[in-house]
Amino acid sequence: MTTTARQAAPIRVSPEWLRLREPADAAARASELVDQVRQRLCVNGRTVIHDLGCGSGSMGRWLAPQLTGAQHWVMHDRDAELLALAAAEPPGGAGVTVETRQRDIARLDSSDLTDASLITASALLDMLTTDDLDRFASACAKARCPILVTISVIGRVALMPADPLDEQIADAFNAHQRRTVSGGRLLGPDAVDAAADAFTRLGADVLVRPSPWQLAGAEAALASVWFTGWVGAACEQRPELTAPSASYTRRRLGEARAGRLGVTVHHTDLLAIPR
Questions:
Q1: Whose CA is closest to 181, among 29, 5, 4, 1?
Q2: What pLDDT is attached to residue 11?
Q3: pLDDT at 10 over 60
Q4: Which residues contact 154 (CB under 8 A, 6 or more apart)?
Q5: What are phi and psi of 236, to 5 degrees?
Q6: Which of 121, 122, 142, 159 is a Cys-bridge partner for 52, taking CB atoms 3.0 to 4.6 Å apart?
Q7: In 3D, which of 245, 93, 237 has the Cα closest to residue 171?
Q8: pLDDT surpasses 70 at 35
Q9: Distance (Å, rounded) from C-alpha 80 to C-alpha 15?
Q10: Burial of 210 (0-12, 13-18, 19+ CB in 10 A)
């Protein structure tokens, strides 16, 4: 029996999870899009970067060293604990300053972004509803600057060696990503296509590039935590998977600990450039 739409509390991301995934995010992001960003920033003036849903600040730590000149990072997040972490470990480099703003990104207004030279976000789009995304895209587009959104899930996962239960868990997880929360139905793996359409309608040129996690033996800890959450979400969505997934989970986690589990989690990076 398939679980239908349900209400849920606002999604909170733990600092521990963000810390664990930061190196994988950094390795996966499409550096080609950074080249495009640099071409559109003023090399002599100060660059003001608004990082939306900044979490603990990993985007700034990854991107700031790749940009030149003075930078002012404005970190937006609704979670005060994560903002404190972002402020405690800011992007490095001379001429880089940081401020934090506690904001619900889904309720962002264009007036919050009037001074932006660049807008960034990471691992955010799948947690938005259609209405959230429309507000997000509209507020960003009015800033008339590049918008770089990285590490958005697209619903494809590959595990090696393969197992017959992989596809069922993946389908249930994707359904969980599209579940209904208090604000509406989440976009989940449909978010990148929806964002590309929204920014195109608002008069931007949109570039998309793959940014997959490639997790092997060296990333066993991340692979194990990711896998546990992946299966847990699938079973929450479709409880009939709980019993058959028990031995599957033990086997897969054993493979991860032994460095024998290869995981590819497909993501897409998106850059919207105003015309």
A1: 5
A2: 66
A3: no
A4: 189, 192, 266, 267, 268
A5: -65, -40
A6: 121
A7: 237
A8: yes
A9: 11
A10: exposed
For the stretch 199-244, pLDDT in tens is: 999 999 999 999 999 998 889 999 999 999 999 999 999 999 999 9
Q: What tokens were used for 201?
A: 């309608």
- Give the pLDDT band (50/70/90) at residue 4: very low
Phi/psi zone of residue 5: left (φ > 0), alpha (ψ -120 to 50 degrees), beta? beta
Taking the C-alpha atoms of residue 83 and residue 88, their distance in angstroms, rounded to an integer, is: 9
Q: 5: which DSSP letter?
A: -
Residue pair 242/3 in contact (Cβ under 8 Å)? The answer is no
pLDDT digits (tens, 9 = 90+) for 37-54: 999 997 778 999 999 999
Q: What is the DSSP secondary-structure string of 77-140?
A: ES-HHHHHHHHHSPPPSTTEEEEEEE--GGG--GGGGTT-SEEEEES-GGG-BHHHHHHHHHHH
Instruction: Give the residue ranges of DSSP H helices in the chain.
Output: 15-28, 31-39, 58-63, 80-88, 130-141, 166-177, 191-201, 220-237, 242-257
Q: Which H or E run contains 149?
A: strand 147-160
Q: Cα–Cα distance between 55 and 13 in angstroms, integer?
A: 8
Contact (Cβ atoms closer than 8 angstroms) between residue 187 and residue 262: no
Q: Tell the burial category of 176 from Cβ atoms under 10 Å away from its Cβ (0-12, 13-18, 19+).
A: buried
Residue corresponding to tokens 């697209």: 154
Burial of 11 (C-beta count, 10 Å sphere; 0-12/13-18/19+): exposed
